[in-house]
Fold this protein.
Amino acid sequence: MNLKKERFHIKVRIPFFLFSLGFSIYASKLLSVMTKNDNLQQLFYPLLVILLIYLAEKTRLSNKTIHVALAVLIVIAGFGMEMLAEPADALWIRSIIS
């Protein structure tokens, strides 16, 4: 019975990593718009990704398990933030699909 319950659960590590990529793009674009400095965006993006992953590992958030459906929602949220920051990517994906 316990095996069946754990079958649809995965660790948060991969969904959180994908979410942090999308969130970092969104946050660095927002900072770039506020400061009008593209060099700051190029520095801020990798630092924010590393910081988010470091915090997730330090707080042991990445070792928690969640249901697969929630993991998919986390990934979609990160992907959506990236699409808000880079609308040209959304148009490119839409042209590929249709």
